[in-house]
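Retro notes (design track)

What went well: tokenization of the new backbones is finally stable.
What didn't: we kept losing track of which sequence belonged to which structure.
Fix going forward: every design gets posted as structure first, then sequence, in one message. First example under the new rule, 170 residues:
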């Protein structure tokens, strides 16, 4: 199963240096809960749209991680990895986002398909969003507007083999 793991640039450095991210992890995936909550336009686009929704949920969660990691660059990071279905458990608590899953295992670098990282142009908006993301989660419309500004930036896609080079640019 493809999972989208919210991360930070610090976590990416650990992934490259140690060859793994120690578990457990909360991530996002195309789950029955996500499928039932997300309207799609046609069956053919179904999986692609749902994967994008899971990626965006992980990107939002990345803001929360950046908030508690002062050494991380002010950029959202999502790691896409392939994990055996049997090692992924859907979180069905009504207080968690649709598509949230738990992966108890480490995520090995060899299981990573790609990393998705904000570009430099997003740093100011991400910095502002990091400061108010919890307020947005609690319903503040003003804070949500700031978070929406950060979420308006597209994440750049990098293959597993490019992650180390990307870190050198940050």
């Amino acid at each position: 199963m493809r999972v989208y793991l919210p991360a930070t640039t610090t976590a990416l450095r650990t992934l490259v240096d140690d060859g793994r991210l120690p578990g457990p992890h909360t991530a996002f995936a195309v789950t029955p809960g996500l499928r039932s909550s997300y309207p799609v336009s046609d069956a053919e686009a179904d999986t692609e749209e749902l994967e994008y929704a899971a990626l965006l949920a992980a990107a939002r969660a990345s803001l929360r991680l950046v908030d508690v990691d002062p050494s991380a660059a002010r950029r959202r990071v999502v790691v896409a990895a392939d994990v055996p279905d049997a090692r992924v458990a859907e979180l069905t608590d009504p207080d968690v986002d649709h598509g949230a899953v738990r992966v108890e295992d480490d995520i090995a670098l060899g299981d990573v398909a790609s990393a998705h990282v904000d570009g430099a142009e997003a740093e100011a908006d991400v910095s502002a969003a990091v400061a108010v993301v919890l307020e947005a989660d609690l319903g503040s419309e003003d804070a949500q507007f700031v978070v929406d500004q950060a979420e308006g930036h597209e994440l750049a896609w990098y293959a597993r083999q490019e992650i180390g080079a990307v870190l050198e640019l940050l």
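Added context from the reviewer: The mean pLDDT is 93.
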